[in-house]
Design goal:
Bound molecules: coenzyme A
Strand content: 25-35%
CATH class: Alpha Beta
Helix content: 25-40%
Distance between the termini: 41 Å
Radius of gyration: 15 Å
Number of domains: 1
Strand order of the largest sheet: 1-2-3-4-5-7-6
Largest sheet: 7 strands, mixed
CATH topology: Aminopeptidase
């Protein structure tokens, strides 16, 4: 296995990123969701390209340039969702002194799971958010994401159901973590 490196994602990475996300959504949520909820997830999840424009979206790749995983953070208020699925886009900038940075769109390619890629990307996001002055991070987690986030120190705040997609609601949970002590 070649060494894995990370960098900020660029617009030309979009097709490959979307392919990774599609595989992760389809293959890594069984056991956490029903098949109908997995199918509906494709409409709930995905990439908000604002993160690439803001240069707050990371990817991890191998020596051949194959993307192993990705994820980002945001200094904007939108909490979750992809370009096509954001219910409430809130582009306004957050106040680091008061608000929590948002952790967004964390995906590992099924061929690379349980090798610490999710943990690595999350750490990069937290470091960047901390550098930008944020003291807290939060996200809307999928059920498949909860074990990673709990392993990385996040706590569950409230369960949430997505808007119905063809009659199916996807369970989500809002989670948060302190990035620095008060
Ligand atoms: C969630 C996801 C990004 C995790 O990626 P990953 O690169 O496999 O995670 P890591 O290898 O960094 O895992 C770190 C730790 O998190 C926990 N963890 C991660 N995935 C887990 C799973 N499926 N079951 C139980 N614990 C898990 C473990 O404690 C793990 O440490 P260990 O492997 O030493 O036991 C990946 O499963 C995924 O893409 N899921 C589908 C998309 C999704 O739901 N994303 C979250 C959006 S909010």
């Amino acid at each position: 296995m070649s060494p894995l490196t990370h960098r900020l994602a660029q617009p030309e990475d979009l097709d490959a990123l979307r392919a990774v996300m599609g595989r992760a959504i389809a293959q890594l949520q069984h056991g956490f969701l029903t098949p109908a909820q997995v199918a509906a997830s494709h409409q709930v999840m995905g990439l908000d390209t604002q993160l690439i424009a803001d240069q707050t979206y990371f990817l991890v790749e191998d020596a051949t340039g194959t993307i192993a995983g990705c994820g980002g953070w945001s200094f904007r208020a939108t909490l979750y969702g992809g370009d096509a699925s954001i219910v409430a886009r809130e582009p306004q900038r957050l106040d680091p002194a008061r608000d929590a940075a948002k952790i967004r769109a964390m995906y590992t390619d099924p061929a690379f799971i349980r090798r610490g890629i999710g943990r690595r990307v999350l750490g990069l996001c937290e470091e960047a958010a901390r550098d930008a002055g944020f003291a807290r991070a939060e996200m809307m987690a999928t059920m498949a994401g909860v074990p990673l986030y709990e392993a990385c120190g996040y706590r569950q705040i409230e369960p949430v159901l997505s808007a119905p997609i063809a009659g199916v609601r996807v369970p989500l949970v809002r989670m948060e973590k302190l990035l620095r002590s008060a």
